[in-house]
UniProtKB/TrEMBL annotation:
Protein name: Homeobox domain-containing protein
The keyword DNA-binding appears for this protein: yes
One term of GO molecular function: DNA binding
InterPro entries: HD, Homeodomain-like_sf
Comp. bias regions, Acidic residues: 31-45
Biased composition (Polar residues): 1-10
Length: 117
């Protein structure tokens, strides 16, 4: 306590600091609860909609063989693959689109490495 300071004032300041700390703790606990609730909601969404579908080995072999022959299958090829493996044409197109994207990305990296040497 400083000289010339009223003892009642120092106690009052001390109590205000404690109140502020309590409010801060309460806000922190509220934020933790909100974060935990958001995480639980995200986990429930993931359980309802799995991100990746497990695909059979014959399907993957067939898709990769088709990809090696032709990076962009025709509409008929997509329909036959979809019918054969009980998938939609959209799923087949999406698979080929993703593979083309990664293939082109890898080709660009290799080309860039050759240039830098």
């Amino acid at each position: 306590m400083l000289c010339g300071q009223n003892p009642e004032q120092s106690n009052r300041n001390h109590h205000e600091d404690e109140r502020r700390k309590e409010k801060w703790r309460e806000r922190g606990e509220e934020k933790e609860v909100e974060v935990e609730e958001k995480l639980e909601e995200e986990e429930e969404k993931e359980e309802r909609c799995p991100q990746e579908r497990l695909v059979s080995k014959p399907l993957m072999d067939t898709l990769w063989a088709m990809f090696k022959l032709n990076k962009c299958p025709t509409r008929g090829d997509s329909q036959s693959l979809a019918f054969e493996f009980n998938m939609t044409v959209k799923q087949i197109k999406q698979w080929f689109r993703k593979r083309r994207k990664s293939y082109n990305k890898d080709m660009y990296k290799q080309k860039y490495k050759k240039r830098s040497k």
